[in-house]
Amino acid sequence: MRPDGPGSAEPDGEARITLLTRVGCHLCDTARDAIIRVAAQEGVGWHEVDVDSDVRLADEYGDRVPVTLVDGREHGYWRVEQERLRQALVGGGRWSMRPSGRP
Q1: Which pLDDT score is estimated for 5?
Q2: What is the side-by-side order of every strand in the sheet holding 73-77?
Q3: How many percent of the chain have pLDDT more than 70?
Q4: What is the DSSP letter of 65?
């Protein structure tokens, strides 16, 4: 796997960011690019999960993909605001979840 791509993780094996996607989703491609940048800049791991690979995830997230999770908690969906994601990583998750990704 590429170090900056799906499945990449921190040296200890923990990924702080999870990106929930589905095949053919153009917003997912844009979100992935943003997460790759932020994860590299902040030195954190991330991984990607196709929601359609798990019935429970597909039921839960439906058409809200892409969804970004930070430390297992939902951070936002549809768009990734890079500065807000950085703040969540540095601040230990002290943020509110908004559909647009805006605080």
Answers
A1: 41
A2: 46-50, 17-21, 67-70, 73-77
A3: 76
A4: -
φ/ψ (deg, to 5) at 57:
-65, -40
Q: Where are the beta strands (DSSP E) in 4-91?
A: 17-21, 46-50, 67-70, 73-77
Kind and range of the H or E run holding 6: none
Q: What integer pLDDT is reported at residue 91 of this predicted model?
A: 81
Amino acid residing at 29? D
d(CA 33, CA 4): 10
DSSP 96: -
Residue with tokens 């943003």: 34
Structural domains in the chain, sorted by start: 17-90 (3.40.30.10)
Residue 71 CA to residue 74 CA, distance in Å, equals 8
Roughly how many angstroms between the first and final C-alpha of the chain, as a whole number? 33
What CA–CA distance (Å, rounded) separates 87 from 94? 8
